[in-house]
Write a structure and sequence with these properties.
19% of the residues are buried. The protein is 32% helix and 17% strand. The chain has two domains: 88 residues, no CATH class; 119 residues, Formyltetrahydrofolate synthetase, domain 3, CATH 3.10.410.10. The protein is of the alpha/beta class and 223 residues long. It has a four-stranded mixed beta sheet with strand order 3-5-6-4. Strands 1-2 form a two-stranded parallel sheet. The protein has a two-stranded antiparallel sheet with strand order 7-8. The protein contains seven helices and eight strands. The chain is globular.
Amino acid sequence: LKYNGGVPKDQLKEENLEALARGIVNLEKHIENMQKYDVPVIVTLNSFITDTEAEYQFVKKFCEDRGCEFALSEVWEKGGEGGIALAEKVLYTLENKESHYKPLYPGEAGLKEKIAAVAKEIYGADGVSYAPAASKALKKIEDMGFGGLPVCMAKTQYSLSDDQTKLGRPSGFEINVRDAYVSAGAGFVVVLTGAIMTMPGLPKVPAANNIDVNNDGVITGLF
């Protein structure tokens, strides 16, 4: 959240409530997105040892002011014990808050209509642009009888837009669709946006090369 508020990655360990206030608009959009489905929302903050109590309280109040349950996750530090607070919030929500789930778009909508719904409602885009290859692929998918499937958007995780440099809660942008293909077995249409890769690239020497297990079952190289 502080990174979204303009703090360089090498300064994230320092308390900065002003940057947190700027960057939390990103979380605000995610909360709004979940609430569009008419379901109760729980926000959990993954605790880092460099986070401060003031930062925790700022995020907690921000979430609760928007009708969300909030829990701090300390699993990294305390293992299973550190997840009890979140588990209790989940149980409380299941027992006390109603869900009236509704999808974002009707299943019978066309693929471009579904893509536009995600782009505008979830990402906050003004619209969608299509490369010729994308329009051709989407038409072929519909002609094959797969137009009734939901869409799975492949997009950078760093921004609500398809440009990873647009942080926070960007506005005034279009989602650029470059291609699409159908995953018939899984039951969805994959929509490729921007320069995203659907399979993470590996370094020249993957970490897996250093992982081994001996005859006693002792594993080495994981950490």
